[in-house]
Amino acid sequence: MKLRKQGKIDEKVFAETRLRRGIYGQRYDNGQRHDGKRVQKLKLPAEVIKGPDTLWDAPGMMRIKIPFGGVTPEQLETLADLSEEYADGVAHITTRQDVQFHFVHIDDTPSLMRRLAAVGITSREACGNVVRNVTACPLAGICRDEAFDTTPYAKACSKFMMGHPDTQDFGRKFKIAFSGCQQHPCGLVTMHDMGAIAKTKIVDGKEKRGFEFYVGGGLGSVPYKAKLFDEFLPEEEFLPMAQAISRVFARLGEKRNRARARIKFLIANLGIDEFRRLVLEERQKLSPDPRWTAHLATVNEQMEEALKAGVSLNGSERPEGFEAWYATNVYKQRQPGYVAATVTLPLGDASAEQLRALADIARRFVKDTLRTTVEQNILFRWLSEADLPEFYRAIRAIGLGAADAATIVDVTACPGTDTCKLGIASSRGLARELRYRLSEKSLELDQAVKNLRIKVSGCFNSCGQHHVADIGFYGINRNVKGFQVPHFQVILGGKFRDNAGEYGVAVGAVPSKRVPEAVLSITEYYVRRRLRDESFQDFVRRIGKKEIKDLLEDLTKIPAHEVGPSYYTDWGDPREFTLTDMGTGECAGEVVSQAEFALAASERELFEAQLLLDGGRPQDAVKTAYASMLRAAQGLVKTQNPGISEDEQQILAEFTSRFYDTQLFWDKYAGGKFAEYLFKAKEFIGAAKSADADRAVQLLQEAQLFIDAAHDCHNKVRGAVESPVKITTAAQPSA
Amino acid sequence: MELQKINVKFFATDPNNPPLTDFIDLFHGWIQATDGVYHDVADYSHMQAGPGIVLVANDANVSIDETDNRRGLLYSQKSPLSGSNPEKIRTVLRSALKNCRRLEEEPSLHNKLKFSGSEALISINDRLAAPNTDEAFEEIKPEIESVAQTLFGDADITLERDPDPRQRLNVRIKTSRSLGLGELVRNLQND
What we know:
The complex is a heterodimer of chains A (735) and B (191). By secondary structure, chain A is of the alpha+beta class. Chain A has 21 helices and 28 strands. In chain A, helix 3 runs antiparallel to helix 4 and helix 16 (536-552) runs antiparallel to helix 17 (594-614). The radius of gyration of chain A is 26 Å and the shape is globular. The N and C termini of chain A lie far apart (67 Å). Chain B has one domain (6-190). The longest helix of chain B has 20 residues, at 85-104.
């Protein structure tokens, strides 16, 4: 930090250096903020920057790794202290079992890191293009269905990969997850860059441990399901294979174009067979490393100890609310007399006082057998079942006794516009609102609805894991009669079970303030129309997107700005969402640009593509999706060249020269990624390749993102250049 | 011991009124009324006994804090202050009281918010510099006592340290009679 202040370290190098130590920039770190009326320059000394466009003193986020979610009471107390002294008094559990602090000053981070290290935690490689926190099923070791406890493997993997020379030259981040079983969601293996599902098989009459081994999954803007690399990778081969994969990824992975740099793209390009061949070839070149197998000597030993003997619940007195909480938050361990209890943290937040109280509760009931979860909660393991009433009283006393774990009420959300500089809409604001409303109705909810999961991301980047929710949302913005309005794209039918077994599909955008109504509408419709025991995924698939879109149609509309200004703000944020002062029509006639017509048409065409895909016609779906992208591109070109023809080549050429080459279409953070979706689709169509369902789904998702980006681009350039036409409505007054 | 990162909390007389979320709009209004002093408003209204609504700034945060289920205005000085320890404590108390008065006088709250003038909590938000020990308390007690006596005029005062060693060095000042905010501000100004 001293060298940076002296100008002796390049800003980009410093940025990656701090990122690799878990220190992120945060919203407004460029020193500017729109206060709802004007852009304010924040009062910060601006002599030094901590990375491109990032002021030294701007508030930052600190991400702290919690490998496999394992955390002790002592660590909780330290996190509590640090959240008070260096952040805003809150520790936030993330969707990858990490802990985050917000509004941290970079000058405080060395002390913060030292104090974390004193209790065995690190923020090293929590961010940056490295191996991120290694996650694992929080039930590992106590699960009734697992093949074996994956905890020691996750721990060894985390230690081995962190700082390893072969993991330091990636083009992008790399995420690893472990699961003990195939069917349950806890590990979410198939949405990871590398994932392992515990498996055993009999070899020469002896049980042999290994993993069903996956690579190349990932969410992000376009989700990829991981490919099966090996049906049974022996336990002793896990770490060397991970090392070999790292080497291949570092050598062949994209480095210049961040948008194509995750390993999923490399594997998609090479094909899983060629990728496997390269990795196995690399594996042969590795010199043996004793760390590959050092942990195997103790993997069969019980890692955790219970504080008390396991005694079943029997007839002990139960406090009010206990039964409901027991039904949703308690899991019977495979060890008789023991249970695991989920303490749900609203939006993943715990105050310093709550963390200290949880540490006390842990010492009283379970020792140090706690895990953070990807649903942003804390799991207490090895509770004697007989202690549950007292345990429940203790957590209720600190405001954490909600009976809603793994239900629709326990909404997961990324930080979104609260603190993330990529956020488009307020994911936490929406999650908070949904939580309030659904909590109120919780007792009357049909069980089928109660079991659904809602996940919210503030943008397309999927940190809220919206793709694997029954009902998912990601933030976008839309122009409504000259005003920018926060919206959420609705994603339905994702599957959290089966290790993130299926990704949901977009069914349309709903204004942010109408999302709670949309949730109500969708869930009521599900209860009314579902077949006996029909899952939500099957229901969505059966009724199809058209019916769902029709269902939501009314909810896509909002009152005019002067009638309902609150629709033009986001949840928990009174600022008007628009960043520019837009004029509205002086009469009932609305000014609509040619581009807006084209963008609306592109949305319709994309919807047609989705219907074609539903109808089992992936090839036609791909062509129509490409046409929808072309329509959106044409709309943008019309803002500069109203006479643009329908000719594909001309549209592409003019889009490229006017919007891509000039970077007008570029996203501030994603760069030219969305435009490249158009070029890639063109290439795919041009090569006359046949599209299977997977490729078609991907291409349709890319088309949606391209159209969303076209909306953004249009919002950015409108006002400066546009070609408006007047639409006459019935209400237009006479001149 | 050189004190920095001093927090001061004045408690509200009504813990539930006005609703916590009312402060979100209000603080956004404060942001609009200043010129780049504040960074953002953090909404923790979903938490029980949490940090409440926080108006974040570079030098000092202002929050409607609900820790220990006791609502109050918490002023958290973050950037270093100059002067002696009593001077720094006085500076933070003044700033906290200024914000309390601003809130009490805020028209949109319709006189629903009042602060108690018989109690204040001073926390040293730095366990490394000021651990919560008897020794540290004895060291800073005379300094806090002198400022507290000035703040509360001729009222009898008592100073209590939080006995939980895990907590920060929290010193609760209580008086035998309640003073209005105006009087508290005047007492500090006259010093």
